[in-house]
Structure prediction request, 588 residues.
Amino acid sequence: MRRAPFLSSLVILLFALLLSIAIGSVFLAPTEIWNTLLGRGAEISTSILWRIRLPRTVLVALTGAALGISGASYQGLFRNPLADPFLIGVASGAGLGAVIALSIQWPYSFWGLMAVPLAAFAMALLTVLIVYAIARIGHTVPTTNLILAGVAVSSFATSLTSFLMLRSADEVRRALGWLMGGSIQNGWTSILAVLPLLTVGAVVLLISGHALNLLQFGDDQAQQLGLNVTRTRTTILIAASLVTATAVSFSGIIGFVGLVVPHLVRLWAGVDYRRLLPLSLIGGASLLLFADVIARVVLAPQEIPVGIVTALAGAPFFLWVLRRSKNQGYW
Amino acid sequence: MLKIENLSVYYGKRQVLRDVQVEVHSGEVVALIGPNGAGKSTLIRSISGVVPIHSGNIEVGGVNVTSLSSMERARQIAVVPQAVSMPPAFTVWEIVLLGRTPYLNFLGQASARDEDLARLALEQVDAFHLVESRMDEISGGEQQRVLLARAFAQDTPILLMDEPTAHLDLRHQIDLLKLIKKQAHDKNLTVLVALHDLNLASLFADRIAVIENGLLCIAGSPKETLTAEIMRSVYHMQVHVIAHPETGMPLIIPGVS
Prediction:
């Protein structure tokens, strides 16, 4: 097993984390960050670091990690390089679930906090099952079918979401910025509420690398090599949808990270899913951190939703991959 | 030894295999022949467990495998598929190691022994020099040998093959079947291979099973099965049978009149 990609990807992630903590209306130099983390910083830096920068950085990193690994998993599951939680409509489905949950007034309790991610998860799962049922031919999912079904289902979910937002109270309407991929700034609470769900889903996906390798050879060969195909597919589908739903609960609908990251990783470290999944997790976190820094500085002091940055960079990338996969039969 | 008794398989309401009975002994190569759609692939797929069976028994060494899990069955039965639509970017080494899947832990980590067996399998098919190549960088004949190595790495008593020579040129067809026959005899493997080419079946199979319309018509030595009468009734056309100039085995020549 090659170690180099893991080391370099961790170095990149560390740099991205540092950048995200440092950049903002007040610049925090690395030495200052270090001192503040050790509890030796100025009061103002301590406040900025613990109340604003750190929660946001962690939130963005977790969102990116979730999108990266769920994108890689969907691509392996559908044997299609263009599967991405956003493009196949899962993210919009999760968004709808989250908004439905938000439109009900939950008491401030454990289950109140969990309502949003769990509703997002349920709708994400429902969406992916609908898209898969429409798009599949046998056990394969042709690109055209997948994207078209994704667009249709995603538009439907998005319209329902808009409808819910327009007719409901102010609180939900304020969620619009979040849904477009702007981070919510309510500190550590939502991170801690959603983190267990993300961890469970991500761990299941991380140990599914060998199974996803087998599935690349088609269901027949995978089973003949000893894989319980139905159970494996179901498990991965549920885990990937859970992870996508946590990303949406954190940061709304952010497109293209799940597409771009696994692709770059493949070009760099090969197609073995046992490497691809952890590297997509790390890479997704790094990429979204960089995008978030850009979103913060490009119109400073105003922020733009990070989803806009990822779409502006990701959409051309998507077209490039589409051309490339047609020309070379890359899969 | 592979023993199939009264095997019936349905696709929806259509019955595609009817009470098929076949025995393949250890160290024996049995060729499965018959027209398109006769049920050759279905038989291979149902024995390997990817097509559910309606009724009947499949026994490996006296043990019924129909109730085994995928992993347990994959320790008994390996399948060599056609080398078409393989994911191109996997390396030969990665692919052959996948043959060790039924013995790996849940993380799919290969032990030193797994790697040794994969290496040995590659040497047996004379493809060890390709170990670092990607699947799309090697020829069709080499790809087919790699898939054979993957099946050898699976270390099973039973080897099933579905048209392994379909996309190969003459030389590679002969080389592959020679290799399969030698390994079957050397390692006492039980080999059932679906073949389109009647003459290859005649030259390389110890016995031939003829299947038509989901029914097993006859099983026996090439001389017993490849007769003009049987071939005529199975393929619904005029055929001539001549003797191979070197071995005297029957060769089928289509009639043109």
About this structure: Chain A is about 75% helix and 0% strand. The radius of gyration of chain A is 20 Å. Chain A has one domain: 4-325.
